[in-house]
Design a protein that fits this description.
six-stranded parallel β-sheet, globular, about 290 residues, 9 helices, alpha/beta, six-stranded mixed β-sheet, binds 2'-monophosphoadenosine-5'-diphosphate
């Protein structure tokens, strides 16, 4: 049975996402819905943060329960924390702060979320993964998949960045021009190419797509990037960025509330609804309908 979240009272814990920009984040809608669904007495807000050190000091002084960290603070937040989980340390990026009795812990839930989203859709056995991009998102996806012992190739525009990440992952490297996927390649786009407003852009020439490939895009605005549309038209199974986004939030929810499970169905629904019913503002970001909580 759905429990009602208690009214905001003296016991209510505050949670937030720190980022810049952050006004169009889907995290408040998703997390507040999860809190309400499970009866967790918390409120989650989006805060535009420029000085991450000062913001982390506020987490301590105001005893926030937890924080999501997004662009551009995922790496620069690390020196301000008390402890960093081993996975986040290896990746070099934190997307989650947990306030454990006054000690601030950093975690990375992007990496396990990417693996979760992928593995529930496709078996990784005897497959190879090609990761397009070598930035922060590629690092999280790459380290997550490297732990699964899948052969990985990094495909990036800039060879220096691509080779550096490939070396750290024990992966191969190819330039975009030279890369020729195999029939059983799982292709994952981690670049922003194809994201609104560049909706016609593709991160790799579409003639490289083969029917046996699986194609995942971490982009969810638009819901079906042109890469996914082109792949689907060639018969490839495709996966958009919603599951990974929801799962990184679900793992945060579990860390913050110590509940054994997150209410995945409603979290997914609120994100899906927001993206399918949203109008877009002048920057192309989704405008959440009022009333989604
Ligand atoms: P994030 O943290 O979101 O991953 P990032 O660290 O800025 O963002 O990384 C963006 C990645 O997308 C990089 O790998 C970048 O390639 P370069 O290393 O060559 O810069 C890639 N990228 C961004 N715009 C691109 C474009 N127009 N074509 C190809 N790759 C692009």
């Amino acid at each position: 049975m759905v429990k009602a979240r208690p009214d905001i009272d003296a016991q209510t814990r505050l949670y937030a996402v720190f980022g810049d920009p952050v006004a169009h984040s889907l995290s408040p809608a998703m997390h507040n819905r999860a809190f309400r669904e499970t009866g967790h007495n918390g409120v989650y807000v989006a805060l535009r943060v420029r000085d991450i050190g000062a913001a982390v000091a506020a987490v301590r002084s105001l005893s926030l329960g937890g924080v999501s960290i997004t662009v551009p603070h995922k790496t620069t937040v690390i020196p301000f924390l008390d402890e960093v989980d081993a996975g986040a340390k290896v990746i070099g990026a934190v997307n989650t702060i947990v306030n454990q009795a006054g000690r601030l812990w950093g975690y990375n839930t992007d990496a396990p979320a990417a693996v979760w989203a992928l593995k529930e859709t496709v078996s990784l056995d005897d497959r190879q993964v090609a990761i397009l991009g070598a930035g922060g998102a590629a690092r999280a996806v790459g380290f997550g998949l490297a732990a699964e012992k899948v052969p990985i190739v990094i495909v990036n525009r800039t060879p220096t960045a691509g080779k550096k990440l490939a070396e750290r992952l024990g992966a191969g490297f190819e330039t975009i021009e030279a890369f020729q996927p195999a029939d059983d390649t799982i292709l994952i786009n981690t670049t922003p190419v194809g994201m609104w407003p560049q909706v016609d852009a593709v991160p790799i020439p579409t003639d490289r797509l083969r029917p046996g490939m699986m194609v995942m895009d971490i982009i969810y605005n638009p819901l079906q990037s042109r890469l996914l549309q082109e792949a689907a038209a060639r018969g490839c199974p495709v996966l958009n960025g919603i599951p990974m986004f929801v799962y990184q939030g679900a793992l945060q929810f579990k860390l913050w509330t110590a509940q054994p499970e997150a209410p995945l169905a409603v979290m997914k629904q609120v994100v899906q609804d927001a993206l399918t019913t949203a109008t877009v503002d002048s920057t192309g970001r989704p405008q959440l309908k009022r009333g989604i909580k």
